[in-house]
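Retro notes - structure team

What went well: the batch runner handled both jobs without manual restarts.
What didn't: labels got mixed up in the shared folder, which is why I'm recording both outputs here explicitly, each with its sequence directly above its tokens.

Job 1
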Amino acid sequence: MLRFQFECRPLADVSPWGRSQLTLHWFGLSEGWFWFDSEDREVLRYRDEAVRRWDLERPYPDYYIARMWEDLILLRWVLEEPVPDDLVPFVDGTFPSREIPDDDVYGDDVDVAFSVQSDFNVYLGYLAQSPTLKCWRHSVEGGDVVTLSQQLTTEEASTFDGPPRLEFSLPAAEFFAAVEDFDRRFITAMEERVVELERSGPPAGVALDLDDLRREHLQRSRWLEQRLSEPRKVDWAAVRNGVAEICSWPSAVEM
């Protein structure tokens, strides 16, 4: 089982943006904590020493939940197409590093390959010492499966809980259901914030257009549905050609 968890920071404690003019908006109102529950393990959980080091309120990333929500919606769309078996090593984090040619000249298919490879990364660069998080859909013994992988370097392992490589798989339908569940729970939580602000008005000294806030909330509440209505088609032949060219480059270890 997989569940995308979050906890919103109390509305009264949400930090406005800006200096000369403080403002609030939908994204900023999503301030809080997020993590993943998977069976008996929590993904994106800080180690106790990191909690003490940074005097954290919770052992989870303290950021804008909307950022993870946006990325998971995009990832859900990316996973519309399974990765062919022969290309899984190119996207799962096990592909050997290569040195880009000094002349920086290569075929267009290489750009296609690298673009597709990056599609399966969950960006966490806004977190200090963040792990590498990858997710891809593939076939395992005829089953339609999504695999999630968290990889930690030595430095990252001193901050985030888990082994150097944590990997688990689940049926694609269960992963998709987990994203939909997260989307609905998060949108519901944000609806409650919008309603509360419509009732109370913005905090003193903080600029907030409540009509715009309501319009944006309604738009975002349909983002998952709208994203999945767009067809996704990967040119896997071009990806294979690009990977073949990349494999001809010198190994980064050999340089």
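Job 2
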Amino acid sequence: MPSDDSAPTLKPGDSYVQSFARGLSVIRAFGADAPRQTLTEVARRCGLTRAGARRILLTLQTLGYVRAEGRLFELTPKILDLGFAYLSSQPLWQFAEPLLQQLSSELKESCSIAVLEGSDIVFVLRMPTRKTMGMTLGVGSRLPAWCTAMGRVLLSALPNEEREAQLAKLPLKAYTSRTVRDQQELNVAIEQARQQQWCLVDQELEDGLIALAVPVTGRNGRVLAAINISTQASRTPPQILLEQGLPRLQETAQGLSRLLQIKG
């Protein structure tokens, strides 16, 4: 994953450790598109000097988060410790797994839970049943929020000014011929998701892919995550997905929300 060009430029100081930030950028440089890289490639993707990238990679290697084979560096499974620390600290995922498993089993469709992180959704729980997408998704996978059902549900919970500022910075890429690329039309779709408390996205991210999502709330009604059902249009048309899936999806989200409100 390339470094985030939209991130604010911060100066080193008591509240910002530049070397630590650079270390995180090196970790984020690795991804499905570039799982193994040379020192030069890492430096280029992170905007670092070769010497700076080398120091960080060797530090990560010493700590066991990176390994080297010849000129190529790659992450090790130990890097998962960083993500699982977040997952294990959040009660939501512990409560959600049996509910999501039951929902997926009943509907015979893939179900997921995601949270909003910047302009992306990040999957924190997934129950795949059949392959619905060309890409492989799992815990930690990221997708653009603006053209996904879970993303629009989560964006709809943001204050208007924050949401509009975030969307204004994004290049609205045409993933398919159905992708909404007009800012005004996108804002209407997100506002509709807010009012009806669900969102259906029909083949905007990938041809054939349909997803239906609803919010999961915590105390004080604050939206914490979104839960979805995803399927193929050839198997389950949008109207059938709404009729058969929305009641059960809402029931599961409400059950999880109640648990969160009780457990805190």
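One thing worth noting from job 2: The chain has nine helices and nine strands.
We'll revisit the folder naming next retro.
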